[in-house]
Amino acid sequence: MNEVYLNGKYIGTVENGMDFVEQVRRERRKNIMPHDLNIYYHEETGNILMQACKGRVRRPLIIIKEGKPLLTDSHIKQLHTGEIKWSNLVEQGIIEYLDAMEEENALVAFNDNDLTEEHTHMEITPLDIVGMCASHVPYGNYMPGARMNMGSKNQKQAIGFYAANFPVRMDMDVNLLHTPQVPIVKSIMHDISSYADHPSGQNFTIAVMSYGGYNMEDASLINKGSIERGLARSSYYRPAITEELRYSGGLIDEVCIPDKDVRGYKSEKDYRLLEPDGIISPEAKVKEGDVIIGKTSPPRFLSSMDEYNLTSNLKRESSLACRHGERGVVDFVFLTENEEGNKFVQVRLRDQRIPEIGDKFTSRHGQKGIVGMIIPQVDMPFTASGITPDLIFSPHGIPSRMTIAHLIELIGGKTGAMAGRQIDGTLFNSEPEKAIREELLSLGFRENGTETMYNGITGQQFTAKIFIGNMYFLKLKHMVANKIHSRARGPIQLLTRQPTEGRAKEGGLRLGEMEKDTFVAHGTSLLLKERFDSDKTVVPVCENCGIIAIKDEFKDKKYCPICGDNVEITDIELSYAFKLMLDELKTLGLYPKLILKNKY
Which residues, 6+ apart, have CB-to-CB distance to 587 below 8 Å? Predict the structure, then answer.
């Protein structure tokens, strides 16, 4: 007897498990049972597991009978002419969807050349194994799955041409590449997904070599001349949004230039760019601290009597200013109303981003790295034909990562650029490497992709031949301008009196326990005295009972809350966070006694 489970619940038993499973599959293919039901026979336990729940990943496969696929040439012709649809193939039992569980009972052939009597299914195309983004990686079958996965993830973060109507959109955090290009080495998925309408990279000339040591640890070197000609140049857009909120009692915010008697008034310089309506004008250059939208709000926490008091009826300043570390040009101003009929203002800022040291670049094979140095074109190495690379890629990134596809794309890109055509690098179904090498040889280049190169500084010929070619490279949205952060003095938290956290709040850079260990290991432990006093405070302590005493600023005297003022009270330095902990202990009814000793 075999136990049967549906969606994890026991529903009964059957006498012959294998026959039952085969019968369910036959009826599913005849359209009697639902198509989204998957069934799996566990050979070791004899249990039958059926799944029909939501959220499973299922993929289509061609059904094989007696070593032959049920999908014939006549079906393909009918699909082309539009006589039948995909859904008809599923209904006729020619194609079925399997989930990860049922796939354990299947033997799937890669293509019709591999078919045997044992096979139960065949791939529609080997490209079907991977998802949308991974199928854009050329020659993906020449590299490990982990790098393939990384390459597909990196493509999602690439800056490109995301939408044609970007001038009239107010998107949150947008990057736009100025001159996006279509890749020379492409996959069939580039055509299917209309990639040419929304490309997100450029074809760089890349030399694989070490140069001056600035491209160690995955860093890459970029040609300054290429940057000046517009390579990887992009714009960053960010909106500033505010609205006139309504409060209880009929009070309302007002978008305007705040008056000088408003509580929290900044300075005339901060409001200099605002027009009479309180909103900044388009194409105004703004930097950190400049007000973009002027706004005043009614005072907070009004009591019932305060509403009639004229002196307390001062408005407070609530303008929207440029964030810490931000700059740009006002690109677009949009005024409308929200669903409640209140005034709603949106201002979009634009900032041109030119590649700089610290910006992140990647190939489509997960070979990501940041710019380590920008080299003047005169100092860049050059080939015998006078070609200088746009980017120098470190050779140390290849052996351990085993991304052979990265090297094949370099040869393919070089061949495509010289022959004036696109190279097909579709996963498992690409143009053979041998044919590309032969074509490159016929174009007058060495078939292994290497060339004689010369040192740009000395003019001497390099001893080794340098591997150089064309590759589709992506600039990622992780730019150093959005991440750079430093602080000397700045805001502190109210509770702990320690610096605030995070770049947006002008926060401090925390020195944790591990960083402390590195100081000690380097013999510079005295630095900790400076590093760990961000919340240093001086408190009076009673020498008799060890409790923190009170200092009366008005009477200029100190006294102990327990012993009075006839005891010796000493000022000591300690961390405010520690003083806070002592207060917390007092709330628990514990007595934290401080026993003082002389330093000397």
Answer: none
Q: What is the DSSP letter of 114?
A: G
Q: Chain centroid to CA 403: how far?
A: 22
Please give the model's pTM, rounded to 2 decimal places: 0.86
| Letter string b/e over residues 295-320, b meaning 16 or more CB atoms within 10 A of that residue's CB | bbbbeeebeeeeeeeeeeeebebbbb
- Percent helix / strand / coil, the chain, rounded to 5: 25, 30, 50
Checking if the pLDDT of 308 tops 70, the result is no
Point out the least confidently predicted range of 264-273, 387-396, 584-593: 264-273
Q: Which band of pLDDT confidence, cut at 50, 70 and 90, is reported for residue 159?
A: very high
Q: Mention every residue, 6+ apart, whose C-beta is less than 8 A from residue 224.
A: 374, 375, 376, 377
Question: CA of 22: how far to CAs of 16, 26, 197, 544, in Å?
Answer: 10, 6, 47, 88
Is the CB of residue 86 less than 8 Å from the CB of residue 92? Answer: no
Yes or no: say if 548 and 540 are a contact pair by the CB < 8 Å rule: yes
Q: From CA 485, how far away is CA 577, in angstroms rounded?
A: 25
Q: 20: number of CA atoms within 13 Å, CB side?
A: 20
Q: How many CB atoms lie within 10 A of CB 261?
A: 8
pLDDT class of 598 with cuts at 50, 70, 90: confident
DSSP E strands, 45-172: 48-51, 58-65, 68-69, 95-99, 108-109, 121-122
Report the alpha-carbon distance of residue 85 to residue 82 in Å, rounded.
7
What separation in angstroms does the CA of 437 have from each of 184, 412, 422, 430, 446? 16, 8, 15, 14, 8
Give whole-number Cα distances, 361 to 312, 372, 405, 486, in Å: 56, 11, 17, 24
Query: What SS3 string covers 166-228?
Result: HHHCCCCCEEEECCCCCCCEECHHHHHCCHHHCCCCEEEEEEECCCCCCCCCCCEEEEHHHHH
- Helical H runs in 37-108? 73-81, 86-91
Quick check: helix, strand or coil at residue 573? strand
Q: How distant is the alpha carbon of residue 267 from its chain centre?
A: 37
Query: What structural domains and CATH numbers belong to the chain?
Result: 2-124 (no CATH), 148-165+174-233+357-475 (2.40.270.10), 237-300+312-352 (2.40.50.150), 536-587 (3.90.1800.10)
Q: Distances from the Cα of 120 to the Cαs of 123, 128, 500, in angstroms?
A: 11, 17, 62
Cα 359-363-366 angle, rounded to 5 deg? 95
Q: Does residue 303 register a pLDDT over 90?
A: no
Q: Which residues are the active-site residues? A: 218
Q: Are 5 and 21 in contact (CB under 8 A)?
A: no
List phi, psi (to 5°) of 75.
-65, -40
pLDDT at 39 (0 to 100): 95
Closest CA to 461 of 534, 387, 381, 529: 381
Query: What's at 3, amino acid-wise?
Result: E
Kindly state the percentage of the chain with pLDDT values over 90: 84
3-state secondary structure of 158: strand
Average pLDDT estimate for 159-179: 94
> What single string gives the DSSP state of each residue in 235-302?
EEEEEEEEE--B-TTS-B-EESPPPTTSBT---TTTTTTB-TTSBBPTT-EE-TT-EEE-EEEPPSS-
Euclidean distance between CA atoms 209 and 397, whole angstroms: 11
